[in-house]
């Protein structure tokens, strides 16, 4: 029997069948050069369209990686255009992760005094028509103030106005601002979710996004406590309300941890052992949430198959595919640099 999700789920299943697995990327011995990577992109969902629309004069990591990122955007837009109006509401909410990536890259380019006009027309058209971005002003901006002015009318205007003075400081404390921005986005998504998901979808989404918010809080507490050495009262200003495991008691326990070992023990007791990575080179603790959230989402999708969750799961898998392709491209590009040229990097 046909339902509201039959058409889009059928399409996603067809698109999923073309995803490259981790093994196909990392253990593919035929991927030895940038030409090999480019050929893979030319025959893989999303990247093929991005490659056709990009005029490349030389194959370098700097020319190939934007194609990979744009391939993810093309895939998102393909599903967005196919979706019905209700499904588009969910995809718009999910697409915020691409919008924030866009904003961060524009700001980073301006800080580095680089050209900010780095995005393909299809995605910027979507931002302009569906998300109220003033693309002309953004792409012509040469200062952070001009970017902030151009974001007026978007959901991000409030955050940037409130933090305008922080963006004018020299040097900009980008790490703290990134934490605050991620928290602003997480709160927006959390509030909007209850208005766009069905009751069944919302129940599963809360489990997933609650864990996601937990991990943002855990990483924020760890970085601000052990790297920036902020006081506990200062750190509390950066804690997100929505959570799954983190209540006021557990947050206070994390804040009171005297060292990284105590912090790690607390995470294990909360069921987050899988996200802990001990970096032997720096003797630091890292929070790696990707595989943990991937497994959690797959588990939740199994109990809610006739919904938007399988579509979001596919887009997450597409992002992971792109990240692996980008890392492989960088590795191959670096390995092909002559030793004398490496000394100049």
TrEMBL record:
Pfam families: vATP-synt_AC39 (PF01992). The keyword Transport applies. GO terms for molecular function: proton-transporting ATPase activity, rotational mechanism. InterPro entries: ATPase_csu/dsu_sf (IPR036079), ATPase_V0-cplx_csu/dsu (IPR002843), V-ATPase_V0D/AC39_subunit (IPR050873), V-type_ATPase_csu/dsu_dom_3 (IPR044911). Keywords: Ion transport, Transport. It comes from the Bacteria. This is ATP synthase (C/AC39) subunit. It comes from Atopostipes suicloacalis DSM 15692.
């Amino acid at each position: 029997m046909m339902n509201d999700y039959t058409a889009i789920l059928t399409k996603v299943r067809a698109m999923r069948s073309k995803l490259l697995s981790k093994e196909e990327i990392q253990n593919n011995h035929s991927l030895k050069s940038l030409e090999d990577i480019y050929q893979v992109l030319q025959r893989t969902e999303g990247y093929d369209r991005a490659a056709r629309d990009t005029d490349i004069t030389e194959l370098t990591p700097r020319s190939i990686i934007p194609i990979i990122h744009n391939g993810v955007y093309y895939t998102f837009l393909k599903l967005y255009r196919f979706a019905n109006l209700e499904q588009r509401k969910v995809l718009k909410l999910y697409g915020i992760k691409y919008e924030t990536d866009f904003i961060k890259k524009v700001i980073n380019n301006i800080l580095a005094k680089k050209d900010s006009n780095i995005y393909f027309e299809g995605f910027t058209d979507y931002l302009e028509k569906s998300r109220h971005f003033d693309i002309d002003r953004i792409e012509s901006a040469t200062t952070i103030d001009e970017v902030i002015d151009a974001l007026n009318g978007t959901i991000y205007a409030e955050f940037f106005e409130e933090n305008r003075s922080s963006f004018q400081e020299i040097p900009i404390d980008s790490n703290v601002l990134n934490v605050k921005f991620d928290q602003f986005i997480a709160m927006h998504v959390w509030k909007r979710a209850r208005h766009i998901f069905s009751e069944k979808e919302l129940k599963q989404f809360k489990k997933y996004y609650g864990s996601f918010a937990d991990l943002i809080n855990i990483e924020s507490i760890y970085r601000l406590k052990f790297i920036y050495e902020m006081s506990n009262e200062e750190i509390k200003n950066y804690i997100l309300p929505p959570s799954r495991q983190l209540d006021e008691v557990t947050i206070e326990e994390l804040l009171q941890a005297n060292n990284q070992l105590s912090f790690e023990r607390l995470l294990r007791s909360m069921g987050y052992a899988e996200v802990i990575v001990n970096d032997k080179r720096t003797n630091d603790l890292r929070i790696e949430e990707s595989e943990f959230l991937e497994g959690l989402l797959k588990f939740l999708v199994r109990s809610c198959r006739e919904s938007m969750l399988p579509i979001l799961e596919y887009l997450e898998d597409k992002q992971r595919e792109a990240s692996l392709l980008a890392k492989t491209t960088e590795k191959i590009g670096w390995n092909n640099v002559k030793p004398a040229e490496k000394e100049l990097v």
